[in-house]
Specification:
Two copies of one chain form a homodimer.
Chain A (H helix, E strand, L loop, with lengths): L2 E7 L1 H4 L11 H15 L4 E7 L6 H7 L8 H27 L4 E3 L7 E3 L2 E4 L3 H8 L3 E5 L1 E5 L3 E5 L1 H11 L4 E6 L20 E2 L1 H12 L10 H13 L3 E6 L5 H6 L6 E3 L2
Parallel strand pairs in A: 1-2, 1-9, 2-6, 3-6, 9-11, 10-12
Antiparallel strand pairs in A: 4-5, 7-8, 11-12
Helix pairs in contact in A: 2-4
Chain lengths: ~270, ~270
């Protein structure tokens, strides 16, 4: 049996995240589709892709507040429209992959997922297992989903990724982001910041003290919380790798096993 | 509790079915979206919509044979592309509905459905129930789905419709088709053919003899088989109505309870 890799590509990579209107970054989408195709053609791994929403989701959700629940007809229509927009973005992403001969099967998580107060509580992966066994590449994406407490909440790609990876015994998760990895400090503010190539439980405390410094404030924009999450995933035996997907070649390299960016292990 | 109506709109109504390339019939889609909106605004019923594939599905499926299973890489890619095309058609349909203030929630059945040798064997409707309770209008559509025996088979709108109607205790199913209803003979070939306004088990035998005539051949193009299916649905207490959705006003009239076309009851 081949190793399973779950590749998450952020909304900031595949869309123009700051655009008021939904706007896909076709250049990045096409380049990453080619990289995935080249790596997948090696036949060395099974693959699940998860992508974010970027400007297809954040603006409409922020404007209508549907992530906090549904209370009126306007929000009901916004719920449906938010889902429709995610399907449109997913169609652009899977079209690029299919053009490159990747059997990229769109999978709408909210067709069956159940949330409770914003957390995923039920998500049946039997069909997904079938698609993998049949040699397809399931493609999930962030969606608005049914929530038992507030009718609607957001099932983000960042929630889908570890859930699917654990349930399907993935070997590793690759996070294709807009940063080079995890640094000792915020590299945009501190020129002495250094990339941390390997994080494991044993050095987490040291890293944590580097990052928060003497002020005990997380200066890296919530990166510490992120690392905690990845260490939690690592406890299930799943390696995480954070790479910069804006830079050509990185996604392909990570898929083929190169140790670029930051790797988080048990 | 409001009555639940399941409205199935055929692929021949919302697409140019004979087009070699996928081609939506925007005029029909927009008109029917307006009719649904006007009827739904009455607040008299809950609604589930199911639509067919038409030229978004039949051509690619026929060309690649994926309905009979997946055997090679080309078919794997065709499987994914067929799903992607259905999502595109669904996006056009739901966009028109949303524009008319109908909270039309796209639902990809193949994200979780399991087929066996072409028949639907597992389909979890818990999220769908949640959407209905939250005041949304779930919109299903025909899709290629995972099949335990042949990797892929087609989960058509015609399979989804009675399954969902039975599981969710629908009051009636409306079939928006390209014919006026069920006739005593093929109206295109026989000018004396008469519309049958009401079919029930007691008059099925008589109707059956009208339709097959002395030749014992079903001259109405499989319509007898169709009636058998509808009578089977009627046994679950669900009325079926066949109307011509190409004619303006019919979908709205049927949703509001007018007895046009052919009605099939227990």
């Amino acid at each position: 049996m081949k190793d399973l890799i779950v590749l998450k590509v952020g909304g900031s990579v595949i869309t123009d995240k700051k655009s008021e209107k939904p706007k896909a970054n076709l250049k990045n989408i096409n380049r990453i589709a080619e990289e995935i195709s080249e790596a997948y053609a090696s036949g060395k791994f099974d693959l699940i892709l998860v992508h974010g929403a970027g400007s297809y989701g954040h603006q409409i959700v922020k404007k209508t507040g549907i992530d906090k629940g549904i209370k009126n007809d306007e929000q009901r229509v916004a719920f449906a429209e938010t889902q429709r927009l995610q399907n449109d973005l997913n169609s652009i992403v899977t079209k690029a992959l299919i053009k490159n001969d990747v059997p990229a099967m769109p999978l709408q998580a909210s067709a069956h997922a159940i949330m409770r107060a914003g957390r995923l509580v039920k998500f049946d992966l039997e069909a997904t297992r079938g698609f993998l066994r049949s040699g397809l590449v399931p493609v999930f994406y962030g969606v608005p989903a049914f929530d038992t407490e507030q009718a609607c909440s957001i099932l983000s790609g960042d929630q889908i990724t570890p859930y699917v990876a654990k349930e399907l015994y993935a070997r590793k998760i690759i996070h294709g982001t807009n940063v080079d990895g995890i640094f000792t400090a915020d590299p945009n503010k501190d020129k002495s910041a250094k990339l941390i190539p390997l994080i494991r439980e044993e050095n987490f405390e040291k890293i944590s003290s580097w990052m928060s410094g003497s002020s005990a404030v997380d200066v890296t924009g919530g990166m510490l919380g992120k690392i905690s999450e990845l260490l939690d995933v690592a406890k299930s035996g799943i390696e995480s790798q954070i790479v910069n997907a804006l830079k050509a070649g990185n996604v392909k390299k990570a898929l083929l096993g190169e140790k670029i960016g930051t790797v988080v292990v048990r």
